[in-house]
Amino acid sequence: MNTVTLIPGDGIGPEVSSAVVEVLKAAGVNIEWEKINGGEDAYKATGAFIPEALLESISTNRIAFKGPITTPIGKGFKSINVTLRQKYNTYANVRPVKSFPGLNTPFKNVDLVIVRENTEDLYAGLEHMVTEGVAESIKIITEKASLRIGEFAFQYAKDNNRKKVTAVHKANIMKISDGLFLDCIRRVAAKYPEIAYEEVIVDNMCMQLVMYPEKYDVLVLPNLYGDIVSDLAAGLVGGLGLVPGANIGDDIAIFEAVHGSAPDIAGKNLANPTACILSAAMLLDYIKQKEAAENIRQAVFSVIKEGKYLTRDLGGTATTEAYTRAVCDYLSK
Ligand code: NAI
Questions:
Q1: 146: Cβ below 6 Å to ligand 1?
Q2: Atom of ligand 1 nearest to the CA of 274
Q3: Of the residues 25, 203, 215, 250, which is catalytic?
Q4: Residues 17-28: pLDDT tens digits?
Q5: Which of 1, 77, 89, 313 is the most buried (most CB within 10 A)?
């Protein structure tokens, strides 16, 4: 039996995390959850945003499921999400974005995977005021991290029968930093001749994605572009409530949705737990419980296709709980 650290998170976090626990139970999954919170709620309860017990739990279990955690804007403490990714060196952020049959979206055939570098770039947190009225934020790109994420993207493509990797960059302007990223990805690409390789500048990539998303397969991006393009891609398939993610390191992984804590709908039983449920399915793939993972994906896709229990973000009226029950009922059939 695997023990997995469960971080419920802030805002809608506790609601969507409960949905995950219920769905995995209905799927008959053999997991023991070790529930320890981090974030604002943890701070109120323990005086620490990342309690020592949470760090110990992740270090021991090596696998965690994390609900979204609020980060104050323009002030306050450093993002706990970024801190955990850097601390545990979960260098690859993997986000599969796939169309849901039955949903009324402009595109029916999106099937791409975003592989985002997760440890450096402008998220290194190295910023300061140079002088009054002048702020500086330092973008760190290293050969080591760029080769590592390139290797991850191509190996992922190979293992998952994907045909093409697209490197996304802005090396026309940031010739040295994005130039190094691109050079590293090219070096990795040369080792995988069976996988097609192309490069697209990030602004053009945004336009291409909202016009021809079906042309893309695996995207590999530095941290900041990966963050932005992930939300854009979520919009192509029905929104942030749907897209799962995983932060993967060499022997540790933290699974979480792309979306944040959605304070505007928190505590109202309105959140769509699909993204978190599908993130948990990625967790099951990771611990080799592939059949349960597939059953859960099938249940989610079937309930959404049927359209009877859609949450408000998808145009329906079902609560978080009603939708979760429908997924559990499908699994118990
Ligand atoms: P957000 O993703 O929380 O929300 C953006 C919009 O999408 C909102 O209108 C929200 O209601 C909607 N939405 C998001 N998830 C949804 C779901 N599951 N079901 C239905 N609607 C959903 O992004 P926002 O507002 O920019 O950030 C809020 C907070 O979350 C901030 O403190 C931010 O730092 C944090 N955040 C945390 C992340 C994490 O823990 N990995 C990732 C992104 C943001």
A1: no
A2: 18
A3: 203
A4: 999 999 999 999
A5: 313
Model pLDDT, residue 266: 97
| Domains identified in the chain and CATH numbers | 1-91+240-333 (3.40.718.10), 106-237 (3.40.718.10)
Side-chain-side CA neighbours of 99 within 13 Å: the count stands at 15
| Contact call for residues 91 and 79 (beta carbons, < 8 A) | no
Cβ neighbours for 282, distance < 8 A, ≥ 6 positions apart: 94, 96, 244, 245, 246, 255, 293
How far away, in angstroms, is 240 Cα from ligand 1 center? 8
In degrees and rounded to multiples of 5, residue 146 shows phi and psi of: -70, -40
Dist. CA 22–CA 230, nearest whole Å: 27
pTM: 0.96
Strand order of the β-sheet with 2-7 is 31-35, 2-7, 63-66, 253-255, 246-248, 92-98, 111-117, 218-221, 164-169, 196-201
Q: Is 189 in the pocket of ligand 1 (CB under 6 A)?
A: no
123 is catalytic: yes
